[in-house]
Amino acid sequence: MPRTEFISTGFYVPERVVYNDEFTQWMDTSDEWIRTRTGITERRWAAEGQLGSDLAAEATKVALEHAGMRAGDLDCIVYCTLSPDYFFPGGGVYLQRKLGLADIPCLDVRNQCTGFIYGLSVADAWIKSGQYNRVLLVGAEVHSTGMDLSTRGRDLAVLFGDGAGAAILGPTADAGRGVLSTHLFADGSQAELLWCDLGGTAHKPRMTPEHLEAGLHFPVMQGREVFKHATTKMPEAVAAALATNGLSTADIKLLIPHQANLRISEMVQRRMGLRDDQVYNNIQRYGNTTAASIPIALDECVQAGRLARGDLVVLTAFGSGFTWGSAAVRW
Ligand code: UT7
């Protein structure tokens, strides 16, 4: 059975940079609070009318260019997001249309911050089985249109940013390389610790002025609880990846944790006993871009020459659901 390799990666973030200080015009916050608690100094916000699928298309074009491929070479799209352009259909078909493609299948993955790892697991299984040979895996998010910019929403509004990351995956004949394993986990008993009530079918009518007045269309989070779980579950998921492959933390060239909070990444690093050069973070510049954070970070590492053929890179994520997971990849 062939293994799945990353043929290329790419990312795109909107041009508009939003610095921490900007938030002080809307809410009671400070650059100092945001930097101290989260490590974030800036994030990107999409321009008016710029949709998640637009960001995804730009990221895909970069990945195609890096691969020396054309959109027509792709035979499947896996689109991961928690912020779809519309309630339905999902973003995959819009991305397909924007790439000038037709007929190829488009799968939408709704696993929030862990979306890219869930999507990678599906793509890996398809490629290994021989069902598809060139899978485009994208994480794309627009959070900026859905944040409560009043003091009520300050814990979340300052955290999130917009962006998209893409990977093109295919089979490799080199048995030593590629995706070694994926581990996926979920715990629905904790769903409301990080969620958004409105937008689904639970309410009849689905949306009223009272709902909007109460802010039910904004995401809410029990930050401390989420922090606690994230810093426990990500190390566990990485440990599962290492154990499955008979590897140890010393074998890790790069750990790319989902970028939720720099303090979370630092605690994961400490708990796993990893050196600074073994962990990559870029949340300082982009905030939390949920499903896009890992592929954005991955492409930055590739472009910076931080991954050589044969290096072990481990991806891990934790987020709403709760969902969490890991992937071990021999580059
Ligand atoms: O993508 C995966 C999901 N997300 C995460 O993994 C995030 C996990 N959680 C966190 O990163 C942190 O819990 C936060 C960064 C969200 C919050 O940091 P914290 O140190 O846990 O603060 P806290 O929620 O305990 O709040 C401490 C204080 C509160 O004020 P009082 O009650 O002590 O007066 C908050 O109201 O900080 C206040 N606060 C703020 N102050 C200024 C919350 N947000 C802000 C803000 N600016 N933006």
Tally of domains: 2
Small molecules held by this entry: oxa(dethia)-CoA
Taken as a percent bin, the fraction of beta residues is: 15-25%
Distance linking N and C termini? 18 Å
Helix and strand string, N-terminal first? EEHEHEHEHEHEEEHEHEHHHEE
Major β-sheet annotation? 5 strands, mixed
Write the CATH architecture name of the largest domain: 3-Layer(aba) Sandwich
CATH fold description of the largest domain:
Peroxisomal Thiolase, Chain A, domain 1
User: What is the class of the largest domain in the CATH system?
Assistant: Alpha Beta
Q: Could you give me the name of the CATH homologous superfamily of the largest domain?
A: Thiolase/Chalcone synthase
Helix content: 25-40%
Low-pLDDT parts are: none
The main sheet orders its strands as: 1-7-6-4-5
